[in-house]
Specification:
single chain; disordered N terminus; globular; 40% helix; 3-stranded antiparallel sheet; 11 helices; 12 strands
C-alpha cells in the first residue's frame, strides 16, 4: 500500500501524534498485511493473522476502535451499544463460529454472554399488531399465525421453506470448499432444490409464491436491519441463514457490552506484535497490474 498521503495523525499503542511519512513507508515494507478499518471483521482478521505469526497493521480513522461494536455513555451512567444487539451461536465451548474464533485466539473465557429470552429475543411493533420473535421455527410460525390469521397458511408454508433452506445450508457449512459440499445434498434432493432457489431468487419471490399480504411480508423481514437490503435484492437464502443462526442455539448479548469484543481482539493483535492505529485516515490504496503497490 502506498502511504505517501496515508497518515494524517496516528496512535501507536496508547500514544497519539504525527507519524513521519518515511517511518510509515519503512513500516509498510515490513508488513504482511495492512487492514483498513477496525470493525469486528477487520479486528478478527488481524487477530487471526497476528496469532498465525503474520506482521499486521490496522488503520482506523476514528479515535475509537470497534466500528459498530462501540459503546457510548451519557451522564456517566447510561451506556448504549451502537450496533451489537443479539448474536447467535455463542454457547461457550461450542463449535459455533464466534466461540471457535475466540477460543482459537485464547480469549473465549474473557467474554461473558447473556442469553436472551427464547420466547422473544426481539419484539416487532406494527400500528395494529405486535409479535415477539422467538428463537425457534415452531415458535415463529405460531406467533405469526396468531398475529396475521388471514395469512396463516401462507406464513406456515413460507417459514417451512425458509427452515428447509436454513437447515440445509447449515448442514453443508462445515464441509471443505470442494465437490464435497454437494455430497450431503445428494441425499436430500428437495433440500438441495430449496437452497438453489433460495440463492437464485429474492425473498420477495418466495412471498409471492406464498401469497402473503404486506404486513405478513414485513413481519418476516423484521430482522432486516441485519442485512439492510430491500426484498427485491435480498436472497431468500440470506434470510433463512440469518434465522437459522439464532434458532440453532439461541440469541446472546455480550454481558459487558459490544466494546469488550474489540478490546480483546486488539489485545491479541498487540500481544503478537501487531499494531493498531487510530485517528489514521487512509486516503488511497494504489493498485498496479492487479497488485497493491508498496512505496
Amino acid at each position: 500500500v502506498r502511504f505517501s498521503t496515508l497518515l494524517d495523525t496516528a496512535e501507536a499503542g496508547m500514544r497519539s501524534g504525527p507519524v513521519p511519512i518515511e517511518a510509515a513507508r519503512r513500516s509498510a515494507r515490513k508488513l504482511d498485511a495492512i487492514i483498513v478499518g477496525s470493525g469486528l471483521g477487520g479486528l478478527s482478521t488481524a487477530a487471526c493473522l497476528a496469532a498465525a505469526g503474520k506482521s499486521v497493521l490496522v488503520l482506523e480513522q476514528h479515535e475509537i476502535v470497534g466500528g459498530c461494536s462501540q459503546t457510548f455513555r451519557r451522564k456517566g451512567i447510561w451506556e448504549f451499544d451502537c450496533g451489537v444487539h443479539y448474536v447467535g451461536g455463542c454457547v461457550p465451548g461450542s463449535d459455533g463460529t464466534i466461540p471457535t474464533v475466540l477460543r482459537g485466539l485464547g480469549v473465549e473465557d474473557r467474554i461473558a454472554w447473556s442469553k436472551l429470552d427464547d420466547a422473544g429475543m426481539d419484539t416487532v411493533h406494527f400500528p395494529e399488531h405486535q409479535f415477539r420473535v422467538p428463537t425457534s421455527w415452531e415458535g415463529l410460525t405460531d406467533n405469526l399465525r396468531r398475529c396475521f390469521p388471514a395469512d396463516a397458511d401462507g406464513l406456515t408454508k413460507c417459514v417451512a421453506e425458509l427452515r428447509r433452506i436454513g437447515e440445509g445450508a447449515d448442514r453443508i457449512n462445515d464441509v471443505p470448499h470442494s465437490v464435497g459440499v454437494v455430497l450431503p445434498l445428494l441425499k436430500r434432493p428437495l433440500e438441495a432444490l430449496a437452497i438453489a432457489r433460495g440463492l437464485e431468487f429474492p425473498i420477495g419471490h418466495l412471498f409471492d409464491r406464498c401469497k402473503l399480504g404486506l404486513e405478513a411480508r414485513a413481519s418476516l423481514l423484521a430482522l432486516v436491519h441485519l442485512h439492510n437490503t430491500p426484498p427485491a435484492r435480498t436472497p431468500a437464502l440470506l434470510v433463512a441463514v440469518l434465522l437459522r443462526h439464532y434458532f440453532k442455539d439461541g440469541a446472546y448479548f455480550p454481558t459487558q457490552g459490544g466494546q469488550v469484543l474489540a478490546a480483546n481482539l486488539v489485545e491479541v493483535i498487540r500481544a503478537h506484535g501487531g499494531q493498531v492505529r487510530t485517528k489514521t485516515r487512509v486516503q488511497s490504496i494504489d493498485v498496479d497490474a492487479g497488485r497493491v503497490v508498496t512505496p
